[in-house]
UniProtKB/TrEMBL annotation:
InterPro entries (alphabetical): Hemerythrin-like
One Pfam family cited in the UniProt record for this chain: Hemerythrin
Annotated PANTHER family: HHE DOMAIN PROTEIN (AFU_ORTHOLOGUE AFUA_4G00730)
Domain Hemerythrin-like: 6-119
Protein name: Hemerythrin domain-containing protein
Organism from which the protein derives: Microbispora oryzae
């Protein structure tokens, strides 16, 4: 896969997300917290980048783009809400495992819908140059994205307006928690 193509980049991230869900399941205690923090961070930055770069482009470029994107944004909002609940839970509890399974189901269904309805259509409707430009945009958006979920910011405009201050707060919170010996997901 070429990660300078936005579709290949996002498909690779979907694979890593699936792998991280499996890795969270395989671990316990502190290692589970650490892996879950990586999953939270990747999901947060991945969705922000899609919301800022990919979805607006798909909305304009694809036949039925608005319907396709609106469905994905609703799925993303629901997943962010689940992720927020999980981010505040103790990873050792049965409730965490149950909620994680619900999130996994939602995220996998969302990724499959993106791949089938949005990414395949974008690949057909865009040039290599357009996909390379979007990949650059996605990487830049991810570098500045919040590291924790923020439901209600599923539009490009809201992400661009609120994303940078939320990212600063999230990254400061991550540093403070790390310095105090807590995991990034708040447990410790």
């Amino acid at each position: 896969m070429k990660e300078n193509d936005v579709i290949d980049l996002l498909l690779r991230q979907h694979t890593i997300i699936r792998e991280l869900f499996d890795e969270v399941d395989r671990h316990q205690g502190e290692e589970r917290k650490r892996v879950f923090s990586r999953l939270v961070r990747l999901l947060a930055v991945h969705e922000t980048a899609e919301e800022e770069i990919v979805h607006p482009y798909a909305r304009r470029k694809l036949v039925d783009g608005a319907d396709i994107v609106d469905s994905r944004l609703e799925e993303e909002r629901e997943a962010k809400e689940m992720l927020c609940r999980l981010d505040d839970m103790d990873v050792t509890t049965p409730e965490f495992a149950q909620e994680l399974n619900r999130l996994r189901t939602a995220v996998f269904a969302h990724a499959a819908a993106e791949e089938r309805y949005e990414f395949s259509e974008l690949k057909a409707a865009t040039s290599e140059g357009e996909r390379r430009a979007m990949a650059v945009g996605v990487k830049a958006a991810e570098a500045m994205a919040p590291t924790h979920p923020h439901p209600g910011t599923e539009s490009a405009a809201k992400n661009l307006l609120l994303g940078p201050p939320m990212a600063v707060m999230d990254r400061a919170r991550d540093v403070i928690r790390k310095a105090m010996g807590k995991s990034e997901s708040g447990q410790g």
